[in-house]
Amino acid sequence: MATDHFPVLGLRVRTPRLELRPPSLDDLSALADVAARGVHDPAEMPFVVPWTDRPPAVRARSVFQHNLGAYARWTPQDWHLPLVVVHEGAVVGVQDMEAADFGITRRVASGSWLGLGHQGRGIGTEMRAAMLHLAFEGLGAREAASAVMEGNVRSERVSRGLGYRDDGVGVQAVRGRAVRELRFLLTREDWEAHRPDTPVEVSGLAPCLPFFGLGELPE
């Protein structure tokens, strides 16, 4: 089985409404279809890299390859964990988490997106909360960073609602113009003070820990 060689593929994070999991090839195909149907108003650009400006077929292919490649490039010192978000049996978006030298820094960063047809129902908050539970409760993180382009009110609201604090402002070149990037940081103490009541269940984590830089990989 694939999990014999790479246990991360067996990781599951569940809430009452959602399941977050490493994607199968079928999941990636479904995620690509969601991206092709649209992620945001074309007049806006919530991402530093404007990948959603591409034609639908190109956008779909890039999503498939980008998320598949994250697992191919994985090392315990530099990992990127994209988890497809499944709601009522359908893939609706992706929640990711990444870190460099996590065993030392205990700091993660995250990003996410949802298909247009699945927004406005609290899924974005619930999937971020599930990821934070994995980070703090499962992996023992001390900090979680996030950033949004100025004007991305929904994402900013999610971060503030979960207890993130302001952590500075940067500037990014997006679509040929300078855009302010609002940075946020959530400490373990603030997460514990603001963690939602929604229950989160993590399964399959124990054999994954060395792959996150927490212990030695088996020889």
TrEMBL record:
Gene3D superfamilies xref list: 3.40.630.30
Keyword Transferase tagged: yes
Record's keyword terms, sorted: Transferase
SUPFAM superfamilies, alphabetized: Acyl-CoA N-acyltransferases (Nat)
Top-rank lineage group of the source organism: Bacteria
GO cellular component, one term: cytoplasm
One annotated GO molecular function: protein-N-terminal-alanine acetyltransferase activity
Annotated N-acetyltransferase domain residues: 18-186
Protein name in the entry: Protein N-acetyltransferase, RimJ/RimL family
Lineage: Bacteria, Bacillati, Actinomycetota, Actinomycetes, Streptosporangiales
